[in-house]
Description:
- By secondary structure, the chain is an alpha/beta fold.
- 45% of the residues lie in helices and 12% in strands.
- It contains eleven helices and eight strands.
- It has helices at 15-28, 33-47, 51-64, 69-81, 85-99, 103-115, 119-132, 140-150, 196-213, 284-298, 326-336, and strands at 5-9, 171-172, 182-186, 220-222, 231-236, 252-258, 264-272, 301-302.
- Helix 5 (85-99) runs antiparallel to helix 6 and helix 7 (119-132) packs antiparallel against helix 8.
- The longest helix has 18 residues, at 196-213.
- The structure holds zinc ion.
Amino acid sequence: MKRSSHARNEQFVFTLLIVFMLSIGAELQPCSASSADLQLEGFEYVKAKNFAKALECFNGALKEHPNSWAIMQSIGNCQMELGRYDAAIANLQKSIESGGLQASQCISMAAVYQRKGDAKKALNWLKLACSCEPSKASDPGIQAAMTRLLDPANNPTGSPTTPDYCSSLVSFKGWPQKAMPIKVYLRPNPQISGFFSVFSETIKDSLGQWRNATGNTISYKFVDSPESANLICDYTDHRELVSSQHDLGINGNTEMLVKQDNTPGSANIVVLVKDGPAAPFRNRALLTLCCLHEVGHALGMHGHSPNLHDVMFPVATLSGAATLSERDKNTIRRIYLR
Ligand SMILES: [Zn+2]
């Protein structure tokens, strides 16, 4: 077993930054008492991750101060959190037109493009933030975000319409036939034991979809202990366990030990099922997409697809059912059915 490991990880980079910026926006906006109250209430909802309610508050505040760039930015941030990326961009653009270009708006724009999976535009907006406010260039959060955005795994090249995306991946190497069936251990998390059955179902569904795509060339069985497994699957409500220097917007993480011949030796998937102990569990379809994506990495794909309809796109976006696309299926076949 070689010591080297690829960490293949994903996370939403900017959530904390956004919350931070929203509170700065509150200080910047001079306004009437009721508008201030509405904004403060909005920030409380943001903290509680209730973005629909927060949006209502900011919309109310904007009625009193229709030219406030800070409120427009808060609205844009909420739209982004609600997955309405075009509306978010439109509101942020209005905010820029109304208040002049601010570093915080650029960071919000970067966050939206990152969620859309457009690493290049996200990076350009971060660079713009640094030219608006040069101190941002030495901000460790911004530096870490830029490093992630520059990672070739987050900038898949190649055509989004070819039958498969092997050429867009940084590298790929499937598990050898002699390693089949892959021995999978699903590890219960005693802190969120009630979610174990949902997590197990989701991982089984994900493994099954990839296996079926290869006509059972990939096979797996479940084992009772981590010691006898070569694929360990964990779930967590601690965001720090799925963070790393790598991927963008998936909320999961796969680490792989590779053998001398570069084939997978063992892998560990960690999936974020809720963002903190008090938060609600994540949407089931998004969770399935995340598991499909991480299992894809664990099956030997390093890097991503440039097409947002593929589960191996660097950001989880619900554009339909949480199932493999034809390109996903063709890609795994090309890796395993040689
Ligand atoms: Zn990934």
